[in-house]
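Suppose you are handed a protein chain with no further information: no name, no annotation, nothing but its sequence. What can you learn? This example shows the usual starting point.
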Amino acid sequence: MGFDLITWGEPKSEDGKYFRNNVWWWRPLAQYVIEQTKCVDEFDVEGWAYNDNHFVPEVTARAIAKQLRHLIKSGHTKKYETAWNIKQKQLDEANDIVEKELEEFCKSVNKKLGKTSLAPMEFPKDDKEKWEKIYSKKNFDANYPFSVENVEEFAKFCEDCGGFTIS
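A reasonable first move is to predict its three-dimensional structure. Written in structure tokens, the prediction is:
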């Protein structure tokens, strides 16, 4: 699933014609724009979470670009990226522990049942439930990257797009 931002008006340059992020890149970018630029009205926030043709007018797009440029120039975006990456590393490490726990549990279930490679969906009910409980400890926020470069590309798009739809 991806998020395509399609120009609404007449783009001022090639940068303003089209912007695309997959869901993993889009969510942190949208979160940053909403929380840090203060350009997205409260009633529009939900529209940034779905690719259902939410319209962002030119005046808002240009305001977002201006705020993003300021945040990038001030070093805020780089600090945010650094903090994001630290958090990602911590989440990855925690998820590695969960993965090892899942692996050990699968080995124990297979050994108990005299099998070599049962998938969790084939486990007896109690074991499957225990596997799901362990799996639920994984934090999928670890899969969402954030970068200054992505913010810069989005700022260029917003500057030159003439308004856009999130689809």
